[in-house]
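Cross-posting from the chemistry board since nobody answered there.

I work mostly on the small-molecule side, so proteins are not my area. We synthesized NAP and want a rough idea of how it might sit in this target. Sequence and SMILES are below. Is it possible to get a predicted 3D structure of the two together?
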Amino acid sequence: MTTALITGPTRSLGRVAALALAEHPQVRDVVLLGRAGTALDEVAEQVRRRGAQAHAIGCDLADLSDVRAAASTVRDLVEAGDVRPLVALIANAGFVSPDTRRASVDGHELTFAVNYLAHAQLIGDLTATLATSSRIVLLGSNTYYANFWRRLLKVPPAQWRDPIELAEPAAAEGHLGMTAYSDAKLAILYYAHELQRRVAAGVNVIVYEPGWMPGSALSRSAPPAVQAIGRALGRIPGVATPEKSGPLLASVAVDERWSDLRDGAFVVRDRVTEVQPMAQDRARERRLWEATAELLGR
Ligand SMILES: NC(=O)c1ccc[n+]([C@@H]2O[C@H](COP(=O)([O-])OP(=O)(O)OC[C@H]3O[C@@H](n4cnc5c(N)ncnc54)[C@H](OP(=O)(O)O)[C@@H]3O)[C@@H](O)[C@H]2O)c1
């Protein structure tokens, strides 16, 4: 029986995935890393009702000291033998700030900080708690390039810059939040490739894309009319939803079927997909690693 950790379990994709993990026959402990509050307590209760042990750890990913403290709590749980080493670490939490002038507690652009930097901190702090054979699953997004749907919906693709610049809050209005989101998700692809080269043999790094889930809370900052359209689109058959993609995410993290995936393999819903050539770039990947160490004060 094993342990799985997930960030962002309080709603949408992460919540459904956490509950699927709780029902998985091989998972005994589910570590839930989310903002403290009733939603975290409630999902922990639902995990217990499904027969697993829930370990809820309050953590605001916009505050790196909180992330370090949460990682320390997880290490204590493993070292004390309260939970087995992690077989799966799912970096699911995500966020889009429409205003790129907003900064995290540490002064980094908020979207880059929550989606990317906080997870890089967490994973770096938890590598010693991973089981000999384990998976790190990061959440990617096809917004990193200008695919057909993004062009149709006018969602801008990533505009890559040096990571130190990406982490800098905008000085003036006008920088698009969705560009920052796409940059953070491209950073996740680059990070996953570099991480695989640096983790112990036996640790597999995977990037999961749940499909566009228009009804999720990721668009919570959008105008109410846009959110209503999203909810309506989410009811169209074939469109991804947290209910459909959450169990797939849990499966990618723990099921034998996916055990050969590594090197940042990009899984879209339930299919391994080639990334665009620009998402494989050794020079950018190395530079991101160095810049991340600098930003995290390592
Ligand atoms: N929705 C899509 O179409 C789509 C497509 C591709 C990829 N993805 C990715 O899939 C993942 C899940 O997306 P979703 O649609 O389920 O998003 P969501 O409905 O907005 O849920 C996001 C989760 O992240 C947590 N979170 C956000 N900011 C946080 C912070 N500062 N500290 C701690 N937790 C924080 C939220 O916690 P609270 O409940 O406390 O806010 C929530 O649990 C994200 O990584 C997203 O980028 C989504």
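Reply from a structural biologist on the board:
Welcome over. Reading the output above for you: The two ends are 34 Å apart (CA to CA). The longest strand covers residues 130-139. Happy to explain the token format if needed.
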